[in-house]
Amino acid sequence: MSHSKKITKILISVIVILTIVIIILVILKSQDKKKEENMNVLEENKKKEEIVEYQVKELKDPSKFFSVENCLQEQVNEKFKARDIYWLEGITIETYIIQGEDAYYKVTINKDSLQYDIQAIDSKTFEMAKEGNIKPAEMKQNSKDGFEYLTITEEKMCRIYLERFSELQINKPKEAYKLIEETYKKERFPNYSDFEKYVNKLKIQIKESVLSKYSVQHFDDYIEYTLVDTFNHSYTIIATGVMNYKIRLDSYTIKVADYDKNYAKLNEKEKVMSNIYIFLSMINTKDYEHAYKLLDSTFKEKNFTTLSQFKEFIDKNFFEYNIEVAGGKVQEQGKFYVYKTKIAESNSKAAEQKDLTIIMQLKEDNNFVISFSFE
Q1: Which residue from 223, 227, 219 is spatially nearest to 251, judged by alpha carbons?
Q2: Which of 305, 318, 299, 287 is nearest to 368 (CA)?
Q3: pLDDT tens-digit map of 231-278
Q4: Neighbours of 294 (CB within 10 A)
Q5: Highest CATH level, class, for 154-257
Q6: What is the Cα Rg of the chain in Å?
Q7: In the predicted model, is pLDDT for residue 167 greater than 60?
Q8: Is-contact 176 166, C-beta < 8 A?
Q9: Euclidean distance between the first and final Cα of the chain, in Å?
Q10: Which residue among 12, 182, 218, 298 is the one 20 to 30 A from 307 at the CA level?
Q11: At a CB cut-off of 8 Å and minimum separation 6, what does 109 contact?
Q12: Pairing relation of β-strands 82-89 and 116-121?
């Protein structure tokens, strides 16, 4: 082989080797760049997680609230009920701090893998975390799998409110009394003993109460839920958080936000029917004081000069619970409106019925007076 051919072969070999080295260097540099990018992403995420430390918020999403509660019921205590939950949201990790009736927990959830950890904490830790003194948690190696996110509709939320408040009234009436809205409480139940009597009188109805219909209004700072149960009892829930709420136990002591506007849209006979509903609601909830105030003065002086006389008559002549089984039409007679109906304690055909006549006079400012008689 000639000298020139040897040199050519060596040059080709050198070029090939250099090419391979360059390719390797390019690959290594690309990997380094990718590692650097990943490190930058991790660093950025870390910074974001650090920012989240100062963004602890009250949990106001019912679906997440009851998903966390359901997790604790399944894993810790089936009777556990959350009173308050605060949370912070990381890039992939959600951290929840939960206050129950007599226990506190921290639940950490990986949103991607749905793995979760549960840790018991004390009240001091809860209060500190609530104020923002908490850092995004890391998942443990023995985390549980399969966290379940529930969907809570407005109807389901209304059912939860009714069921839980009914349960409180029966089992923990003092706790239920604390949830009554203050302005309403002063008017309807100024003393705990008044509320206790109310619960005792309606205990059967409270135990059997089931949601019949509802409406929901969203305001800037709160949500107002109006519930009606199968006994036609009305409840107004003023909720500033999922389970941070106050309640009114009727719709007439303090009118709901849009009552006057809706009442003004009714014709005279529709107003009469609306007022009859209010009067019968008072009778059914044993609200003798408010019902007594609605009586026409002449009718009152002639039949019930004292509240105790009126109460005695109601207990003797009305049923424990009164429903209309055969309503009539409102008849206008001068400045009065007359309504004849049949009431019974149930819809059963065998149930005793009574013929009730109600006479009403509409007054200014959505007021009215009433008289009534049994035939």
Answers
A1: 227
A2: 299
A3: 989 999 999 999 999 999 998 998 877 788 889 899 999 999 999 999
A4: 18
A5: alpha beta
A6: 34
A7: yes
A8: no
A9: 135
A10: 182
A11: 93, 94, 95, 96, 115, 116, 147
A12: unpaired
